[in-house]
Amino acid sequence: MAERGKLIVVMGDEDTVTGFLLGGIGELNKNRHPDFLVVEKDTTINETEDTFRWFLNQEDIGSSSSTSTSQRAVLEIPSKEHPNDAAKDPILCRARGMFMAHDLR
């Protein structure tokens, strides 16, 4: 959960972004700039990259760990068209290294 006063952003297909918006994530800042982006077939790579960079440079966007240290995290959600390959997922691979085999059962 984001620390008080911090926003969570989402970039993705219409279904994913809509789900987050329905869940309460998604706002317009005082300049009417959204903290979400619906990526469609005609969305350019430059537009996606520029939006991502813009999000990274905003002080009101971030997440907080259980300590007082503020940090940001990027979480990739697999799409319907391209299922997740757990063996290639860097987050899952890293998590596996943090636990013993019997912890994962």
UniProtKB/TrEMBL annotation:
GO CC terms, sorted: membrane
Basic and acidic residues composition-biased segments: 78-88
Disordered: annotated span: 61-88
SUPFAM superfamilies linked: AtpF-like (SSF159468)
Pfam family, one: ATP-synt_F
Keywords: Hydrogen ion transport, Ion transport, Transport
One term of GO molecular function: proton-transporting ATPase activity, rotational mechanism
Entry keyword annotation includes Nucleotide-binding: no
Gene3D superfamilies: ATPase, V1 complex, subunit F
Family, per entry: Belongs to the V-ATPase F subunit family.
Name the record gives this protein: V-type proton ATPase subunit F
